[in-house]
Amino acid sequence: MDYFEWILVMFTCGMVNFFIALSSLKKFLALTSGIDSLLNLENLKEMVRKQMYQALLAIIFFGGMGVLGCIGIITGRLNSTQFVLFLVLNGIVWAAGKLTKPTELRAQNLTVSDPNLSDEYKSVCRTWIRRPFPDF
Predict the structure, then answer these.
(1) How far, in Å, are 52, 90, 129 from residue 68 at the CA level?
(2) Which helix (H) or strand (E) holds 69?
(3) Is the dihedral of CA 13, 91, 25, 115 positive or negative?
């Protein structure tokens, strides 16, 4: 396989992972308008766990793509067309992240009608934002 094809494989795997994660997030939001029961909170935790692990996969795929691209640039394995395509792929990754951020924020700012669940909901959202692995 050609060097640039490995970059394309990493990009493709990362985007498949991205769309699976986005689909899961949208499905959760379609079924849950707020946290009003322990069941909703447990469903949130399950979704967030998956999101966190998929974020780690994204780091591996997109980070690997970036490392391969940088090595390819430095060693001259990428020609000028491949270099431009590499930049376009990185732009797509950046744009996809920017476009889905509001959906993620919506899940992190749901209304919590039960005050007993509020602290745990905030803790789950804080972990989702700040830590690499779920601790709940």
Answers:
(1) 24, 12, 27
(2) helix 38-75
(3) positive
pLDDT at 77: 96
Mean pLDDT of 13-23: 98
Per residue in 31-90, pLDDT (tens digit) is 999 999 999 999 999 999 999 999 999 999 999 999 999 999 999 999 999 999 999 999
Rg over CA atoms, the chain:
18
**pTM, two decimal places:** 0.90
Answer for the pair 93, 19: CB distance below 8 angstroms, yes or no: no
* Neighbouring residues of 34: CB distance < 8 A, sequence distance ≥ 6: 40, 110, 111, 112, 113
How many other C-beta atoms lie within 10 A of the C-beta of residue 22? Answer: 17
Question: Distance (Å, rounded) from C-alpha 104 to C-alpha 13?
Answer: 21
